[in-house]
Amino acid sequence: MSGFDSKYDMFPAGDVGIVEGEMNVPTRGVPSGDSMEFNTLDEPIKETFLRDLRAVGNKFYHVLIPREKTSLLKEWDLWGPLLLCTFMATVLQGSTERADNSNDGGPEFAEVFVLVWLGAAVVTVNSKLLGGNISFFQSVCVLGYCLFPIALSLIICRVILFTTQNTFLFFLRLVISMVGFAWATFAATKFLGDSQPEGKKGLAVFPICLFYFILSWLVVSHSNV
Question: What residue range is the signal peptide (predicted)?
Fold first, then answer.
């Protein structure tokens, strides 16, 4: 039993070998010289929510004014794409009349929702197969956030639909939707263009254009208020 007792001789009487230490959570994405240092374990829920909300708003700003190429890639998230997808699916639901004229809106919501996420996934897989050097979720994040111009065009077109429709207003909605389409495509290629090997950028950009064109056409064809 001497070997058994010797294991407990390391601790004085009454000492059970307490392990002491300090656990620090490193800050993420805080530039050097910035005094904002936070620990997410001690941070109030309100501050966490507001910080994440500011991060989403900042990404929307960079989609509207895509002057640099890394803002959506450094710390990706899917909150913005989820909000935009849900908003567009809600507004566009019931826009397609059925043969039985039931038009209850449920399947249309699902169609738009699945179209956005499945389309973004297909475009991302195509980019990866072409040799893109960004991660799957980074690409989905960019494609989702770049829906913002199309969502803005949807809001404007819906306001126009409250008036009596004529040919001029249809072409006005068409122009607004195509501006949103061009804006979204430009922003997405601005962020994703450099991730593709030389000589394959055209093959990566075409599915992006097709993806946004289909969604923009849904905006134009939406005629129910």
Answer: none
